[in-house]
């Protein structure tokens, strides 16, 4: 007779314990343990294994380039490293309503002619998927739909259809009868992912699984889920903005620094081939507190507008608000302005915003933040054709940044006339640009270059 055993599993990392604990010893998460009942048979005995494996030298193996399939979107292909790799397992995460299912359905339509596509949904019915397909004007007869959550049934369907691409929407709704816990639990997610990975690797079927995210922005389930798959993509964006950023955080077949930009419209996701012109398109006038900065996302340069606002505080402790950059970075740069530039911001509320609803963490924005805050404090506008590039240290020096040539080419292409860059970067420039390039050593020189000092 089968024996019933209970174990306690951490919902964050999957750590198992015989008893409940308030704090997980593996990931230090509090109150994350919940009980799972495991049913084990008492067949006893060990399975006999007749396989013999002899390791071979690595040099005897022949490395071949992975076969890739284009998704039909250059932005997505860039993030993937050139397209979907045959037999790979891709995990796509994002907040509810961000556009994951819409993007996936459009990818299925773009891959017309590549073979059959099996769309497995455990959340929506066929009628709901068809309504979305009609809105997106999708007419691909090769897309097959299966509304199922049992992994055994899905496995049989894959064996029968033999598709080139499989979509699992979503991994948290799938379950296996071999595990007694509910669908979406740590054990179920871990087992289902391992089963899907075995299917796609053995049969060389490209598989995309959609995952829910927690309130912290991480994909729900154990962290081992991200370790098992080949590629992890996050679809990001503010709810009240139409722009979406597809960011790769793990990629065994390409770079993890690339991003793809899309815009959510009535007909679905449309890719943005020149995001710099979109992000600065509404900058018609030239108010104080506004500056253009050049950031790098992977190999792509982005020109972004930064806006700063300083106002006399009516409270004892002035407010510091950062939207789109790290809050701690803003407070650090304000301290540099006070100490090295002599600006008394101790009684000023300081607000900073990255226009477009995107988030940038690159240090090359430091000089732009300094100049935008100084411009707002002095109520002096920065010349419209100026781009600021540079990292700022605690002593007020402007430090070198990488890939300066690509940033300058992007500024030149969009018609800017003057670039303020670190002096050490200017010394190493080899090409000539149709730009007035000003090298600065510290924030004082940068402010003097545009009339703020």
From TrEMBL:
One of its GO terms (biological process) is recombinational repair. InterPro entries: AAA+_ATPase, DNA_repair_RadA, P-loop_NTPase, RecA_ATP-bd, Ribosomal_Su5_D2-typ_SF, Ribsml_uS5_D2-typ_fold_subgr, Rubredoxin_2. Residues 349-453 are annotated as: Lon-protease-like. A motif (RadA KNRFG motif) lies at residues 250-254. ATP binds at residues 94-101. Residues 65-213 form the RecA family profile domain. One of its GO terms (molecular function) is zinc ion binding. Plays a role in repairing double-strand DNA breaks, probably involving stabilizing or processing branched DNA or blocked replication forks. Belongs to the RecA family. RadA subfamily. This is DNA repair protein RadA. It comes from Candidatus Merdicola faecigallinarum. The gene is radA.
